Amino acid sequence: MEELFAKRIKLEKRKLQAYLDISGVLMVTLDKNGDIMLVNKKLLEVLGYKQEELIGRNWFETCIPPSSRDVIYQTFKRLVQGVLGPHEFYINPVLTKAGNERIVTWHNSIVKDEENTVVAVLGSGEDITDFKTAEKYYHDLFEEAPLAYFSIDKDDSIQNCNKAAEYLLGYSRNEFLTMKFLDLLENPKLGLAPEKKAFDKILDGYQILESKLQLKKKTGKISGFDYQLIIL
Q1: What pLDDT is attached to residue 29?
Q2: What are 110's strand-pairing partners?
Q3: Domains of the chain (ranges plus CATH)?
């Protein structure tokens, strides 16, 4: 019985590996600690590794550049803990065996066991290092994302926004482009001071900052939002 069970597990693993290998995108499966369980041929081709060189190694220590490692690992932890949704898109650099960086856009899925416990994260990604490809993906991800995105300059003037921002707050894109982001913020007790301080903190060199704030819609209604600031 145990031998039959072992053969079945081995067959299922081969079937999964075959599925991963025929995919045209990069695919990697990580356990909840970030250790590599499975990779496909496309990922090996892009990163320059052999399969046996990656299986069992930590993804973040091996394939993520040191400058981005902590931020990306913290995002992974929040994904495993259920703080972040599994279907959000992420763009981050990966490190090849030769020490070069490639830019990849990722879509992640959570794998749970019978007790609803997270056991693995399946990531599928596409190499967008080529500028033309990156430009297209940026436009598609930015415009069609279900989350509101703003591009803000160092003077906190809004340079761009996506469709979700227009829908959620009620302003048109042209209206947003005449505004400063801080004009949208409202804190009845503390005014704009906490948000302005957070924005200044980003400009002082923090790569990423997450917090909560209240945004004022065009109707005047105040709504609470989680937000994330990333310096580019």
Answers
A1: 92
A2: 121
A3: 2-140 (3.30.450.20), 145-230 (3.30.450.20)
